[in-house]
Amino acid sequence: MALDESQAPEHLTSVSVDPREMESFSRMAHDWWNPTGMFRPLHVMNGARLSLIKEWVCEHYRRDPDVERPLEGLRVLDIGCGGGLLCEPMVRLGATVTGVDALERNVKTAKTHAEQVGIEVDYRHGTIEQMVEAGEAPFDVVLNMEVIEHVADPARFIADCASMVKPSTPSEPGGIMLCSTINRTFKAFALAIVGAEYVLRWLPRGTHQYEKLVKPSEMDRYLSDAGLTVSGKTGMTLNPVKETWRLSDDMSINYVTKAIKHG
After folding, report:
1. For 99, how many CA atoms within 13 A lie in the half-sphere containing its CB?
2. How many CB atoms lie within 10 A of CB 167?
3. d(CA 180, CA 207)
4. Which domain holds residue 205?
5. What pLDDT is recorded for position 217?
6. Is residue 1 part of a domain?
7. Which CA distances in Å does 15 have to 12, 152, 157, 162, 194?
8. 3-state secondary structure string, the chain?
9. Does residue 188 fall inside a structural domain?
10. Residue 11 in domain
């Protein structure tokens, strides 16, 4: 049962949507695929996070990461997909991808770009709660990347996302969810907010609010309460001079958490 977009407003209202955040992203929606525009930090980050996603998903499903399409046959859900910066690479890796976003302008941008480059993605204008209520079939992989710091109720949001992760069966492992966000530390405040938004102006001012950032211990609790088991965690660090990201043991700024669902 698919989401009904016929009556959906531009800004959807739900526990996973903060109206102030939606208004901010609405002003930036046209710029998603501009590598030097407002979403430049995500373009720069994409190489590192794509490499990690492929590594962790292939490890979980015992796939060879070096083949051309290692995710062939896997169903992937990208929550808060924005303009599709992760959806399209996932398709190229062989996955069948659904991208959902609460902002209609983002979805239109994503659909237009996918059509232009000949990539097939099932884009939806909606929320994760609507997918749960619609009885969507669970997914092998759920991507929850740079989203939780923008929602109204993170615990409920993670619970709804977790319900979209496929449970294990006697013959198959349970699905996997990857969550990427910014830690709530002074270092993150100094670099990810003051540095990125006010000094370097990589992002519009107000893109992130310090009080909404999530500590790793809080993320672990949300995932555990939602019935998932945390099975991996890594930090991501930025070299601001070279504008490159690398995976790191340092989780004081950005970090990614891997969680799996059992029976």
Report:
1. 28
2. 14
3. 16
4. 19-261
5. 97
6. no
7. 10, 5, 7, 15, 27
8. CCCCCCCCCCECCCCCCCHHHHHHHHHHHHHCCCCCCCCHHHHHHHHHHHHHHHHHHHHHCCCCCCCCCCCCCCEEEEECCCCCCCHHHHHHCCCEEEEEECEHHHHHHHHHHHHHHCCCCEEEECCHHHHHHCCCCCECEEEEECCHHHCCCHHHHHHHHHCCECCCCCCCCCCEEEEEEECCCHHHHHHHHHHHHHHCCCCCCCCCCHHHCCCHHHHHHHHHHCCEEEEEEEEEEEECCCCEEEEECCCCCEEEEEEEECC
9. yes
10. no
Distance of CA 143 to the CA centre of its chain: 5
Residue 14 lies in a domain: no
Site of tokens 């995500």: 42
What angle in degrees, to the nearest 10, is found between the helix axes of 154-162 and 216-225?
Answer: 50
State how many domains the chain has.
Answer: 1
Lookup result for tokens 């989203």? 147
At 255, phi and psi to the nearest 5? -150, 155
Tens digit of each residue's pLDDT, the chain (263 residues)? 344 444 444 445 555 555 555 455 445 556 788 887 777 777 788 888 999 999 999 999 999 999 999 999 999 999 999 999 999 999 999 999 999 999 888 899 899 999 999 999 999 999 999 999 999 999 999 999 989 998 989 999 999 999 999 999 988 899 999 999 999 998 887 777 666 655 556 666 666 677 889 999 999 999 999 999 999 999 988 777 777 788 999 999 899 999 999 97
Q: In 3D, which of 91, 80, 85, 79 has the Cα closest to residue 31?
A: 85
Q: What is the pLDDT of residue 246?
A: 85
User: Residue 210 is part of a domain; what is its CATH number?
Assistant: 3.40.50.150
